[in-house]
Amino acid sequence: YGEQNIPNYKYGHIRFSGTGQKNISFHLLVHDISIENGATLNAQNFPVTITGNWSNNGSFISTNEVLFQGNDQIISSSTFSSVRFNGNGTKSATGNIIIEKDITIDNGVTFDGGSYHHSIGRNWNNNGTFLSSGVVEYNGAEQTISSSTFNTIIFSGGGTKKITGNLTIGGNVN
Questions:
Q1: 3-class SS at 49?
Q2: Are 7 and 13 in contact, with CB atoms under 8 Å apart?
Q3: What's the CA gap between 113 and 6, in Å, rounded?
Q4: For residues 92 and 153, what is the distance between their CA atoms, to the nearest angstrom?
Q5: Contact of 92 with 114, CB cutoff 8 Å
Q6: How many Cα atoms occupy the beta-carbon half-sphere of 161 within 13 Å?
Q7: Global confidence as pTM
Q8: pLDDT for 60-101, tens place per residue?
Q9: Distance of CA 123 to CAs 12, 64, 98, 144, 171, Å?
Q10: Which helix (H) or strand (E) holds 145?
Q11: Which of 121, 114, 23, 105 shows the shortest CA–CA distance to 68?
């Protein structure tokens, strides 16, 4: 309880609970992360690498990339600075995801966005597969969007949205 500084260690499974901010000041390498209700994990400007699942019922603060680098992974509703999906298998969202900057889906990876509403603040770099029955909203200023298949897509915010490949849209464009 209260503010805590997390020691530099390679964690298997880590659970952040209790009130107060939990601060990391190193590149966090972990299999599973669970941020419980009332807890805040502050990664500051350090990268986070996850090889397992991400469960967030609290708050996550970061100005760096979160790298999902495992096989099949589950990602709960969260706000991220930037996200990269790497490794193999399917990365499955179980809630709305807000990405303030860039998202990258690497070759050989599937990001299953489910039926949720995902917000992207900057660039969409898709070299893998994106599946979704939900909404992807591009709400930043200058944004680049690579080839993908979408259900519903929303363009909001000012600035130019530059399409760099083929887009297939099965639902609405707003």
A1: strand
A2: no
A3: 31
A4: 19
A5: yes
A6: 17
A7: 0.94
A8: 999 999 999 999 999 999 999 999 999 999 999 999 999 999
A9: 31, 15, 13, 5, 21
A10: strand 143-145
A11: 105
How long, in residues, is the chain? 174
Q: Give the residue carrying structure tokens 């039926």.
A: 115
- Provide the CB-side half-sphere exposure for 144 (13 A, CA): 9
Higher pLDDT, 142 or 9: 142
How far from the centroid of its chain's Cα atoms is residue 160's Cα?
Answer: 23
State the alpha helices, DSSP H only, in the chain.
none
Cα–Cα distances (Å) from 68 to 30, 59, 156, in that order, read 10, 18, 27
**Cα dihedral value 46, 146, 163, 134, nearest 10:** -90
CA distance 22 to 18: 10
Token pair in block for residue 2: 């209260």
What is the distance between the alpha carbons of residues 38 and 20, in angstroms, rounded to a whole number?
7
